[in-house]
Amino acid sequence: MDVYNIYMDESPAAEGLDGEAGVEVEFRVVPNSSDDGDPENNAVLAGLDLVDLINLRDVLMQEIDNAALSALEAQLGTMDDEELMP
Q1: How many Cβ atoms are within 10 Å of 35's Cβ, its own excluded?
Q2: 33 falls in which pLDDT band (50, 70, 90)?
Q3: Sequential DSSP letters for 43-65
Q4: Taking the CB of residue 23, how many other CB atoms lie within 10 A of it?
């Protein structure tokens, strides 16, 4: 079973209503098997606020959905192969 590395990328955001510039946060989930970075030193999960947690949840749910769909497609492919056999 593959493990995943979670990265939090930050970029400057537009000025908010109070005139302060913020930081946009975007999460990336990378399978360890295809991660060409240095996850031991660069993957982060710390000091997340509610919005960050919601964004993290969304990314994780997408990866879970992708894995579930792949498993379902593989199972359906196996069932189709069995039906074709006499």
Answers
A1: 16
A2: confident
A3: ----S--HHHHHHHHHHHHHHHH
A4: 8
User: Bridge-partner residues for 27, per DSSP?
Assistant: 8
* Phi, then psi, of 83 in degrees rounded to 5: -70, -30
Helix (H, G, I), strand (E, B) or coil at 25: strand
Q: Cα angle vertex 28, ends 25, 32, to 5°?
A: 150
* Cα angle, residue 67 at apex, residues 61 and 70 outer, rounded to 5°: 140
Q: pLDDT digit string (tens) for 45-65?
A: 544 566 776 888 899 899 999
Its pTM stands at 0.49
